[in-house]
Amino acid sequence: MIRLLAALLLALCAPAAEVELQRVRVQPGDTLWSLSQRYLQDPKRWNEILQYNKLPGDPTIALPGKTLLVPKELIKEDLRSAALEIVVRDVLSRKKDTADWKDALVQDDLYHGDSLRTLSESRARVRFYGGGRLSVDPNSMAILKAPKKEDHDIRLMSGSVHAARTRVATPSALITPKGEGSRFSARVNQDLSTSVQVFEGAAEVKGTGRTVEVKAGDYTKVPVGEGPTRPARIPNFGRLQTQVAQAEAAAPEPIVIVRRIPRSPAAPAPEEIDLSNPEPGMPVAAYRVQASRTQDFTKPAYEKVYDVEEKVDLAAAGLRGRYWVRAAPIDLLGTQEPFSPPRQVEVLPPAR
């Protein structure tokens, strides 16, 4: 009996586990019941929201416009937010189904379908519900995915990331950590193949028709449309592991943007475009090029989307004479950035 009372006393005195809360904005006409239907895995648990907010007990009463705090464990997995906890230098974010990039700030909420982009000498770290973390390296672009909707947590479009407890999909591979202590890096190469290095634990790497398990100290490469190569030892693994650990340990806590950049970087003039070396930090997939006799481009005389490796040759397209020309970069998601300022060029016949 004494032991039972002692155990009960310890249970009552033990500190309660910290509840992770998410901000949910109330829209006009929302009630506690409608919000529960929209956000909660089990709408019948609407009354648990009352513990964290001053609200009427009747779930059918229209709520005033405000932001509610809701335990993340109650929220549908595809609606849970991730937190941007580290921002170094120039990092941009873009909301799902929008074209505009904005400066990313520490503690910004990121949701399913949102994108994150780092420019040169920049990096970011994202914390997912449940403890998963993702470090985004310079010149990279990633899209967050909800685990229930996809078999991955983020889609890496370009650049590289370091991940723990996070499933990463790339154009050629799916990388799944095996166990909570597993840590790995994934990089999308210029040919869209994927390189995977495992630092701790192991990761399952899946390509077309083949899956391999890569253990700590090993790496593999996954070409597009093929399976991963046989895992091999990472050269100088001990030194590389030390460098990664030092970089993570050196990450400062409060980090702010050092230099703000234009929201929509202008594309260079067509004659300056080096399609084999797109602008650093800008994940360009193609360029839309227009030529017009008039500066307002009301009736373009020529328009074509050029792949990043395709040479812009207006003369070969049959143009002759003086034209106004402009170009707009298109990123890996198919979103077109604004056109560059028009420039007048003289298109001469090809030399014979």
Characterize the structure shown.
With 352 residues, this protein is mainly β. It has 3 domains: 57 residues; 172 residues, Jelly Rolls, CATH 2.60.120; 78 residues, Immunoglobulins (Immunoglobulin-like), CATH 2.60.40. Helix content is 9%, strand content 37%. The chain has 3 helices and 21 strands. It has a 15-stranded mixed beta sheet that branches. A 4-stranded antiparallel beta sheet has the order 19-18-20-21, with no helix packed on it. Strand 13 and strand 14 form a beta hairpin. The protein is flat and about 75 Å long. The N terminus is likely disordered.
Please outline what is shown here.
With 352 residues, the chain is mostly beta strands. 9% of the residues lie in helices and 37% in strands.
